[in-house]
From TrEMBL:
InterPro entries: AAA+_ATPase, ABC_Ni/Peptide_Import, ABC_transporter-like_ATP-bd, ABC_transporter-like_CS, Oligopep_ABC_C, P-loop_NTPase. This is Nickel import system ATP-binding protein NikD. It catalyses: Ni(2+)(out) + ATP + H2O = Ni(2+)(in) + ADP + phosphate + H(+). Its main location: membrane. Coiled coil: none annotated. The keyword Membrane applies. Its EC number is 7.2.2.11. It comes from Salinirubellus salinus.
Length: 405
């Protein structure tokens, strides 16, 4: 029998990251958009956590919120981001304003500069489109070497957030203009960049390091972006749709590379994708997101073998199964809501698309233990009761806009 989850698991030694009740809002001219709505999850050591959902479900904004990269008009308005870092815990141990729990520090309570300084050595990100992430006028090798250089300088002065984050700075640009041939990166950083290119499988890395982004194929450039992300030897790599822009064979190579890197370095990866095939192939645990909420989470087996939330069932029903080919795939009818606060109401956000919506669903469902595994949870009343057609909502209950009445 399932039961409502009221107590979150305490910080465990194997939790690299523990996110609790994270909320991110965008304050737009149309109104407040609740892009992330009380999201909680853990990232453990040496695991790949998949975050899956349709476009607009809040996957990427969640990841950007964790690493404090939300820009105006957005803002993280609530929640906790516990990161395990004994040095940081010791540094802020006497500060009553900073949340400390053993070796974990609540990053939402440390100064912004410290959060910024963790990008690189703690968290790195790779994005869907590497071409838009590289400067087209600087060689690939030099751009990776710059990332190495920033981290190297930061390590030589670990307490300086400025050296980590501002990296280059106005003075260096002025000196560059005055001293012909001066380079920000030294030979050691360039050698490291070449080494990183070699580690991610770029052939002839020394020669390729001298080339510009447009001389790389999409797959090669994605490898180069991974090399750049590894420059700071991060604890956690956030891979945001890393293979979506690539063709199928290159996708497989990049996924294999990520798996190898994770195994070799023992680091953790958060893999954001809309592709359940990628999740099945790569992930240890899964969070399914819809309308800014985690609606189901658990181990890969929990979610794939016993999907409980109708949205998860819909996602699984809309991918081809080679073992059980069906004549037609089952799409999920309707669209992800716009997430405007004034339109969301206080109900299950999936109710306007859910084939099993009932009167109970007009109240916001809490997160329930599904009861078939230690960490399988779902935000759906079907964990507690069976679907009863007598309680079904009429199909026109939400009108065309899907708004709560
Ligand atoms: S709570 Fe109700 S509407 Fe929401 S997913 Fe479950 S059955 Fe469907």
């Amino acid at each position: 029998m399932s039961r409502e989850t009221t107590v979150q698991r305490t910080v465990g030694d194997t939790d690299l990251l523990r996110v609790r009740n994270l909320k991110t809002r965008f304050f737009t001219e149309e109104g407040q958009v609740n892009a992330v709505e009380g999201v909680s999850f853990d990232v453990r050591d040496n695991e790949i956590l998949g975050i899956v959902g349709e476009s607009g479900s809040g996957k990427s904004v969640t990841a950007l919120s964790v690493i404090d990269l939300i820009e105006s008009p957005g803002r993280v308005t609530d929640g906790e981001v516990w990161y395990r870092n004994p040095d940081l815990a010791a540094e802020f141990g006497d500060d009553p304003d900073v949340g400390i729990d053993g070796d974990h520090v609540d990053l939402r309570t440390v100064p912004k500069g410290v959060r910024r300084a963790l990008r690189g050595p703690a968290f790195s990100t790779i994005f869907q489109d590497p071409m838009s992430s590289f400067n087209p006028s600087i060689t690939v090798g030099e751009q990776i070497a710059e990332a190495v250089e920033v981290q190297r300088r930061a390590r030589s002065n670990p307490r300086s957030t400025r050296s980590r984050t501002q990296g280059y700075g106005l003075v260096n640009y002025i000196v560059d203009g005055l001293v012909p041939g001066r380079s920000y990166v030294d030979e050691e950083s360039m050698d490291r960049a070449i080494d990183l290119l070699s580690q991610v499988g770029i052939p002839d890395p020394a020669e390729r390091a001298e080339e510009y982004p447009h001389q790389f194929s999409g797959g090669m450039l994605q490898r180069a972006m991974i090399a750049q992300a590894l420059a700071g030897e991060p604890d956690l790599l956030i891979a945001d749709e890393p293979t979506t822009a690539l063709d199928v064979t290159i996708q497989a190579q990049i996924l294999e590379l990520l798996r190898e890197i994770q195994d070799d370095r023992g680091m953790s990866i958060v893999l954001i994708t809309h592709d359940l095939g990628v999740v099945a192939r790569m992930c240890d645990r899964v969070c399914v997101m819809y309308a800014g909420e985690v609606v189901e989470r658990g181990s890969l087996a929990d979610v794939f073998d016993n999907p409980t939330h109708p949205y998860t069932q819909g996602l699984l029903g809309s991918i081809p199964d080679l073992q059980d080919p069906r004549p037609r795939l089952q799409p999920i009818e309707g669209n992800v809501p716009g997430l405007l606060d004034s339109e969301m109401g206080d109900r299950c956000y999936f109710a306007d698309r859910c084939p099993k919506a009932m009167v109970d669903c007009l109240e916001k469902p809490p997160e329930f233990d599904v009861g078939d595994g230690p960490e399988h949870r779902t935000r759906c009343v079907l964990a507690e009761r069976n679907y009863d057609p007598a309680d079904a909502l009429s199909s026109d209950r939400f009108g065309d806009g899907g708004e709560s009445e």
